[in-house]
Amino acid sequence: MSRTDRAVRMVAASPAAVYEALLDRESLEAWLPPEGMRGRVERWDPRTGGGFRMALTYVDPAGAPGKTTDATDVVDIGFAELVPSERVVQRAVFEADDPAYAGTMTMTWHLVGSDEGTEVTVTAVDVPPGIGQADHEAGIASSLANLASYVEAPH
What we know:
alpha+beta; Alpha-D-Glucose-1,6-Bisphosphate, Chain A, domain 4; seven-stranded antiparallel β-sheet; 3 helices; 23% helix
């Protein structure tokens, strides 16, 4: 059965600034990896139909259940839809031998502007069963906290 995971965060920045951080290679490397991980973009094509490949490495691989290797998760992300300052729809496929991580997960980053900034809602559907829901939602929330810190800070 299909599972949906979700996280929401108010970010004190404009929808345009948040959207830009979703589509900038260096920005993604800085904020997308959740706590305890580092990320490296290996391929980059920021357009509808394009996408990127990211290697996420556990800072402390002891006991880390990497999907690709013991210490890494490698994911291919395709940009299914890009609507400036409103939404980014991604299709994510993990590089893994374990069938529990197989399939395509769709992640929608929905941006709604307000006087306080931008409410960012991340909805993941068709989450592979090997990814624990509580861990996944905590990871998304961690990435959203990183995103907020990144776009709220002067560069």
